[in-house]
């Protein structure tokens, strides 16, 4: 039955499809010129000309690395970081006698940190490669001269004939030859390319539409000449040379790779673009090497630390040179213990300048602990200023629900939309006000209208006055019937074999377009009457009504306005009867217009359609809800309150984008009343006029509004566009190809200098996700569907974060983003945690962490400098080699991890309640240069307190019970103990919320220093050297040791504590204000509770 039905279907006879026929236009005269040189030999692999062309195969790769370039490219990525370059140089020099410590102590941490990062990148790239392997190894049927056999996508070549079946993806860019419909019609879903869910109609040339079996292809040989590979998804120019004739090809014959065949059993096509020459791959961008603004600032900070390192090394070498020159006096060596009389030049007073140079190199290694080895941030979500979001599947649910309608001036439909619920919530009403009449007799049936019945996808209409045959009891029941009859007939849905009460002969379909804004069908009913059914936008429909057909215009317009306020997409429905003579006259004129081969063919066809679409009789209007995903309005509202600009980049038509904008306007309160709605295309004159208007109105109301930008590639208009767009509250770019999405993202990122975040769910969003500083992939419901698993995975694999739905982003950004900015660890630090025992630092993403690392490294490193100054700049380190190796591994690492995991300045609820907290990151309040330099100076101050208090406390008096003074080994332990106590107790002063786990890590880290000292000191002197029983026999029994530590810790931490108290009380930041506000509120609640519990109250 289905086969017989398809043989009877000749959709090309209708205007909807006949208008897709290619015509010889002047565009095809460009073939053979530059940009139009591609020649494809169809089904002719033996042709010797094929080998000369050397077109790309169909293998695709989206990975960043391959086997050959992984090592050099990945190493380049790692050593773009200044700190890594420094440690590489130090590691190489550490093998010389100049090194103050052993080479493994610096080389092993560097290898582990760099190697761990390379392993992580390799794992991520391997996941991309697995997706490429899955795509390249998909099966497709290819004609081999006799029959169609299955082969892998990657083996497909230009010119191959392929058969694609229903619900399969197209393996390459194909020219459609024929389909299961006799006239070559097929339906294509392009959601992966442009985000649109509606099906596109494609049609083959009539000359090839008869090719339906293997026998018919045996003698098929043809040549296609067309444009060269390019990234334009909406144009295609070519010609088919077959049987000695030339047939022009257009976009209607092109089936794009990664689009899907729908509602068509099969199609035959010939591959014209394969692999990276396909339009979708031309729209793809190479995986970028992202460096966040924090990471770039980190480079500047590292340069600053390097400057400090070079400065103190230079100062040390100068003083060393002076001391060395004075060593030789009166024929005797003052510092005889340095053995300057040996041939080694390091302490030779006769070559003091050369010795000073070598000492300078030694100091560069000695003070290397000032530089953190892995303190870098890869991705930042805490400074996002602009969000660029896809629409379809990201903001919306990809479904349309018919919920309301207006017929004969009466509203039907009791459904309540999300927008109405949002309006009611804002107005604090218990129930949203319905648009339908609320007379008492209707209210009593309200429960029946919303009865628990299984919902039908796309149909959310509930009204007992029309359903279950009750419409016949309504006044004007004939018009109600005509209204739904128009909806049933006036569409381009796929014809199916069904039993019908009535049959209609479909004569013409006048298809919808952005210019016409309406669609019409002409049918002949069983009585032989000719009827035109029309539906379209109210802006073009009301002006086409007859004088007798305007009975309910005022009521309908009022209902349309209310529908629009509720975020619904509306269409006006009308009809008219046509006389036989009028139809015959029009048919001749229309046929002449559609068969013309002039450049203005479409204009002639639209003009002919205008003549028949007149004198309409109004029936009513429909209201369809394009639902936003759950929680999207609330999420966008919070993001807007956080001061984040929101751009929507979509491949949808302008009308669809406008309706989504209206939904956001009402449900999210993102756009307020009185704002201007600006619709522009990339026309320089239009943009200039808008800028002039902006200048005129800047004084009175500024330039607020929302902009719909039809994306095109015009470099000279970038400044015009961006200047206008950045003055708007929100921007929606429609008809954007994947590459244009990436270009707009790049434009905003480069010109504004602010942090951009892109969010999307499909393969068409990959370029945008990779271009933005932060890319977020959405999995959602579609992620569970096998049929589009590839595109969803591509979006996720190309992103930096992956979430299930858009609504989760508000919590990720406003809660975890704020915590992350304050002090949290980035996810990569968990990866590095497994290498904690070997690394010198742990990777962090919190500004407090970064500043704290500078503080503790400077506090530790400068004690080495002060000791060298006291030891005549001899290059002697104050500490044992193992003390220095374990400083950042055991004794100071765990408390900062606990700080990042458990410390919270405000709770998650307060972060969502006060989105303004996000501005702390955008305005860079906690990571400004004054704050960074302040922490550095604080670290230097702490080192001064630690060193001079420690040395002064033991310099002039006995340290041991037997009266002996402290030696070098005792001073090293005392200094190191003061450093460990001070930097760990600093965590307590920094913390906002302290748990028992933080106490455990802080005091446990301090205790681990003493446990290590006992175990290491118990080894033989040859192994433990200066640590031999120094704690058990010397330091621990001495009260002076413990008293010195107490005084040093208090004096070192007191300035920061005082500064914090002063700043919170006189110059509070957002989180300080929120803390104090919530604290006062809590105290008020407690006092009220106490009053309630008192007797008599």
Automatic annotation (TrEMBL):
Catalytic activity, EC: 7.6.2.1
Keywords: ATP-binding, Magnesium, Membrane, Metal-binding, Nucleotide-binding, Translocase, Transmembrane, Transmembrane helix
Catalytic activity: ATP + H2O + phospholipidSide 1 = ADP + phosphate + phospholipidSide 2
Residues reported to bind Mg(2+): 390, 392, 761, 765
Name of this chain's protein: Phospholipid-transporting ATPase
Main location group: membrane
Positions bound to ATP: 390-392, 512, 535, 569, 650-652, 735, 741, 764-765
């Amino acid at each position: 039955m289905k086969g017989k039905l398809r043989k009877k279907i000749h959709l090309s006879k209708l205007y909807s499809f006949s208008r897709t026929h290619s015509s010889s236009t002047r565009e095809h005269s460009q073939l053979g010129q530059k940009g139009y040189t591609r020649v494809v030999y169809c089904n002719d692999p033996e042709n010797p000309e094929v080998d000369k062309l050397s077109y790309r195969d169909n293998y695709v790769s989206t990975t960043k690395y391959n086997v050959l370039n992984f090592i050099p490219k990945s190493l380049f990525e790692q050593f773009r970081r200044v700190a890594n370059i420094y440690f590489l140089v130090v590691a190489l020099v550490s093998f010389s006698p100049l090194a103050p410590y052993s080479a493994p102590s610096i080389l092993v941490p560097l290898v582990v940190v760099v190697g761990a990062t390379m392993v992580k990148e390799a794992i991520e790239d391997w996941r991309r490669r697995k997706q490429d392997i899955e795509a390249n190894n998909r099966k497709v049927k290819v004609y081999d001269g006799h029959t169609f056999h299955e082969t892998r996508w990657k083996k497909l070549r230009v010119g191959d004939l392929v058969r694609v079946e229903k619900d399969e993806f197209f393996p390459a860019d194909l020219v459609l030859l024929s389909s299961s419909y006799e006239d070559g019609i097929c339906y294509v879903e392009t959601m992966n390319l442009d985000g649109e869910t509606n099906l596109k109609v494609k049609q083959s040339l009539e000359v090839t539409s008869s090719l339906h079996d293997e026998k018919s292809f045996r003698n098929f040989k043809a040549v296609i000449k067309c444009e060269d590979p390019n990234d334009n998804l909406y144009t295609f120019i070519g010609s088919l040379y077959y049987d000695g004739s030339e047939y022009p090809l257009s976009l209607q014959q092109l089936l794009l790779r990664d689009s899907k065949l729908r509602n068509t059993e099969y199609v035959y096509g010939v591959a014209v673009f394969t692999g990276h020459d396909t339009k979708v791959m031309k729209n793809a961008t190479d995986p970028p090497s992202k460096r966040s603004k924090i990471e770039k600032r980190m480079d500047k900070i590292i340069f600053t630390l390097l400057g400090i390192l070079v400065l103190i090394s230079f100062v040390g070498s100068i003083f060393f040179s002076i001391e060395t020159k004075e060593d030789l006096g009166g024929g005797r060596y003052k510092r005889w213990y340095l053995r300057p009389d040996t041939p080694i030049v390091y302490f030779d007073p006769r070559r003091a300048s050369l010795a000073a140079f070598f000492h300078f190199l030694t100091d560069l290694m000695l003070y290397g602990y000032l530089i953190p080895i892995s303190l870098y941030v890869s991705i930042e979500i805490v400074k996002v200023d602009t969000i660029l979001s896809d629409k379809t599947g990201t903001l919306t649910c990809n479904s349309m629900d018919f919920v309301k309608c207006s017929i004969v001036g009466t509203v039907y439909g009791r459904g309540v939309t999300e927008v109405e619920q949002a309006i009611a919530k804002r107005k604090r009403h218990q129930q949203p006000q319905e648009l339908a009449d609320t007379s008492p007799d209707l209210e009593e049936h309200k429960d029946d209208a919303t009865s628990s019945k299984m919902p039908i996808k796309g149909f959310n209409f509930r009204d007992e006055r029309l359903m279950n045959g009750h419409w016949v009891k309504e006044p004007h029941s004939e018009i109600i019937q005509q209204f739904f009859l128009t909806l049933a007939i006036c569409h381009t849905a796929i014809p199916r074999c069904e039993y019908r009460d009535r049959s209609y002969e479909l004569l013409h379909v006048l298809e919808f377009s952005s210019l016409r804004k309406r669609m019409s069908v002409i049918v002949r009913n069983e009585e032989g009457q000719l009827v035109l059914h029309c539906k379209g936008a109210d802006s073009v429909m009301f002006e086409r009504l007859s004088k007798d057909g305007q009975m309910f215009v005022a009521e309908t317009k009022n209902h349309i306005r209310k529908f629009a306020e509720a975020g619904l997409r509306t269409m006006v429905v009308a009809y008219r009867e046509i006389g036989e003579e009028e139809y015959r006259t029009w048919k001749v004129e229309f046929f002449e217009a559609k068969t013309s081969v002039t450049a203005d063919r479409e204009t002639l066809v639209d003009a002919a359609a205008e003549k028949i679409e007149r004198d309409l009789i109004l029936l009513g209007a429909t209201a369809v809800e394009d639902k936003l995903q759950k929680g999207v309005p609330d999420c966008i509202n919070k993001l807007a309150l956080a001061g984040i600009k929101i751009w929507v980049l979509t491949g949808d038509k302008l009308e669809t984008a406008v309706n989504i904008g209206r939904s956001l306007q009402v449900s999210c309160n993102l756009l307020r009343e009185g704002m201007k709605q600006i619709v522009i295309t990339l026309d320089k004159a239009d943009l200039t006029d808008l800028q002039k208007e902006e200048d005129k109105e800047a004084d009175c109301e500024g330039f607020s509004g929302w902009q719909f930008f039809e994306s095109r590639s015009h470099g000279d208009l970038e400044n015009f566009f961006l200047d206008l767009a950045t003055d708007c509250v929100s921007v929606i770019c429609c008809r954007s190809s994947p590459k244009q999405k990436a270009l707009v993202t790049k434009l905003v990122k480069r010109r504004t200098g602010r942090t951009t975040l892109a969010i999307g769910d499909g393969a068409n969003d990959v370029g945008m996700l990779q271009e933005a500083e932060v890319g977020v992939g959405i999995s959602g419901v579609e992620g569970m569907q096998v049929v589009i698993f590839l595109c969803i995975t591509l979006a996720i694999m190309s992103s930096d974060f992956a979430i299930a739905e858009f609504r989760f982003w508000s919590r990720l950004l406003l809660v975890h983003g704020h915590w992350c900015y304050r002090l949290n660890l980035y996810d990569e630090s968990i990866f590095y945690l497994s290498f904690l025992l070997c690394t010198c630092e742990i990777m962090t993403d919190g500004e407090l962490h970064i500043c704290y690392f500078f503080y503790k490294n400077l506090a530790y490193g400068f004690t080495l400098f002060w000791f060298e100054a006291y030891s005549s700049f001899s290059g002697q380190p104050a500490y044992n080699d193992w003390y220095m190796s374990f400083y950042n591994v055991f004794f100071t690492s765990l408390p900062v991890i606990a700080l990042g995991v458990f410390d919270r300045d405000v709770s998650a609820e307060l972060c969502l309640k006060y989105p303004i907290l996000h501005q702390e990151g955008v305005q860079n309040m906690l990571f400004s240069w004054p704050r960074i330099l302040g922490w550095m100076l604080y670290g230097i101050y702490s080192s001064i307190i630690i060193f001079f208090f420690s040395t002064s406390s033991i310099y002039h008096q006995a340290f041991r019970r037997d009266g002996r003074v402290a030696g070098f080994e005792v001073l090293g332990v005392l200094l190191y103990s003061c450093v460990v106590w001070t930097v760990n107790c600093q965590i307590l002063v920094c913390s906002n919320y302290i748990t028992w786990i933080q106490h455990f890590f802080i005091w446990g880290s301090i205790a681990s220093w003493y446990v290590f000292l006992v175990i290491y000191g118990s080894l033989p002197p040859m192994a433990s050297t200066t640590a031999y029983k120094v704690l058990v026999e010397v330091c621990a029994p001495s009260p002076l040791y413990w008293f010195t530590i107490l005084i040093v810790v208090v004096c070192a931490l007191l300035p920061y504590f005082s500064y914090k108290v002063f700043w919170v009380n006189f110059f509070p930041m957002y989180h300080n204000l929120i803390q104090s506000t919530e604290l006062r509120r809590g105290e008020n609640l407690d006092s009220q509770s106490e009053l309630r519990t008192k007797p008599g109250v």
